[in-house]
Amino acid sequence: MMSISQKITEDLSKPSWLRKLFEEGERLKSIYGEDKVYNFTIGNPGVEPPAAFHEELKRIALNPTPGMHRYMSNAGYLETREAIAQVLQENCGLDFSPNHIVMSCGAGGGLNILLKTILNPGEEVIVLVPYFPLYRAYIDNYGGVIKKVKTNADFQLNLELLAENITAKTKAIIINSPNNPTGVIYPEKSIKELGQLLRAKEEEFNNTIYLISDEPYSKLVFDGLTVPSIFKHVRNSFVVTSHSKDLALPGERIGYVAMHPEIKDADLIFKGLNFCNRALGFVNAPALMQRLVTNLQREEADIEGYLEKRNMLYNHLTSLGFDVVKPAGTFYLFPRSPMPDDIEFIKFALKYNIVVVPGIDFDMPGYFRLSFSVSLDTVMNSLPAFTKLAQDLRL
Ligand code: PLP
What we know:
It comes from Desulfotruncus arcticus DSM 17038. The protein is built from 13 helices and twelve strands. By secondary structure, the chain is an alpha/beta fold. It has two domains: about 5-50 and about 300-395, Alpha-Beta Complex (Aspartate Aminotransferase, domain 1); about 65-295, Aspartate Aminotransferase, domain 2. The N and C termini lie far apart (about 50 Å). Pyridoxal-5'-phosphate binds near residues 106 and 180. Pyridoxal-5'-phosphate binds near residues 43, 132, 214 and 216.
């Protein structure tokens, strides 16, 4: 008898290159020194929360109120949800109330309470390749079946392929824009057409098909772009997001699920999300963080810093002959691997102390991901190493 479940034993046997490589990068640093190893593996924000966060933190800590650390409604504090409803209303002109919002333990917690609420075992959830690898586990947690649909060469939506893959068993589609790992944003036109497709398929199968937009990077966008609201185009939809990236608070586990105000069975869904927050043991999002973010909905971490690093790396890599789609948002680049086998390439890159993640971790072999949420020094120091690598590969 094994001490842990068969399923988790199998999960553990599948390699996650990201963690392994992150640790390899740290090991190399202990040998070669901090400034001679370029560890681009992990997506941990390299910036600090905005000054307004620390001001709120001080204000709240200096003015404790009775009960401020107690349980509250599973959905979270009313004033926090009111503040979010207000911002959503301003963004897309729909009539959000606090009961369209449930506070969650980050976007990961939000996706889990949502998938637990909506999924029956055997129902399919479509994800777009390449995708955030934990979607696999999140869908599997509730007996859902992951269905992978490829995107176009520029990582944009392939609506024909999506249409072919929607079946009577499709319960939801998860999109992630700006995207981890590619950095692409889906334009308004694509979201509108996706909405039309979903409506047609709902009619065809006489079913509800939810669009779930996982948006933790929605404020990390460059070049004056904005992320179009899915709520304007899709009624049976949810936005799941967090302040892990936009306020640089990933360790604090604070985010939310917002449902479209006109979604079918809104009250029932709200009750389901509340119950699942309890049932999964989250109970509620952290109380202190909810209070903090109430007044920070219009704040964001330093985007300019990310922009500088994106430009530096993108310009250098393309000048060396790397094939890479310019990321419109996030802090990731997803270039094509210059060797057909991405694992072979990442091992080759390690010889130059460049530590990157193979595309296979995102179900897209033949590519690799770099996270530029590292320091500007790391980016600058890495440039000659990339040049040498490209020369040796005769790119
Ligand atoms: N979704 C995507 C696409 C992500 O990249 C991440 C984290 O990196 C998450 C969800 C989880 O975010 P959180 O830390 O808010 O749970």
